[in-house]
Amino acid sequence: MSEMVERMVAAFCAWHHAGRREPLCSEPCEDCPEMARVALEAMREPSEAMARVGEDVSAHFISRGYSSPPVEAWRAMIDAALSDQPPIQPPPPRP
After folding, report:
1. Strand locations in 20-79, DSSP E?
2. pTM to 2 decimal places
3. What is d(CA 2, CA 4) in angstroms, rounded to the nearest whole number?
4. Rounded to a whole number, what is the largest CA-CA distance in the chain?
5. Does any domain span residue 94?
6. Given 3-state DSSP classes, what are the helix, strand and coil percentages for the chain, each rounded to the nearest 5?
7. Does residue 89 form part of some domain?
8. How does pLDDT run across 66-86, given as a tens digit for each residue?
9. Which residue range forms the structural domain that includes residue 44?
10. How far is Cα 13 from Cα 24, in angstroms, rounded to an integer?
């Protein structure tokens, strides 16, 4: 399970127990990891507003040597959150 899926499972568990006197789950319910993955998969495609904002800030990153369009970067970040593999270190920015 990736770190982001684990974070989401913890958030689901905390939300589930909010305002209750019972302790938080010592083990997540069996559906929580799948619910987290489904939520991340739904977030993989940015909304139009998110894509617009990404385009607005892309000039900032391009000026620093990054060339990946924001939408592609977003998809890659979500794919990394869905992956059980350790993250790949990005190359250093170009001068």
Report:
1. none
2. 0.58
3. 5
4. 55
5. no
6. 60, 0, 40
7. no
8. 776 677 777 877 787 777 766
9. 3-82
10. 7
> What are the Cα distances from residue 54, in Å, to 26, 38, 84, 85?
38, 23, 26, 26
Rg (CA), the chain: 17
Which among 39, 40, 56 is positioned nearest to 48, based on CA atoms? 56
**Is residue 88 situated within a structural domain?**
no
The three-class DSSP label of residue 65 is coil
Number of independent structural domains in the chain: 1
CA distance 8 to 48: 24
C-alpha 68 chain-centroid distance: 18
Q: In which residue are the tokens 């977003």 written?
A: 74
pLDDT under 50 in the chain at which residues? none
First to last CA, the chain: 36
How far is Cα 94 from Cα 63, in angstroms, rounded to an integer?
A: 10
Instruction: Please tell me the predicted confidence (pLDDT) of residue 48.
Output: 81
Note whether residue 67 is domain-resident.
yes
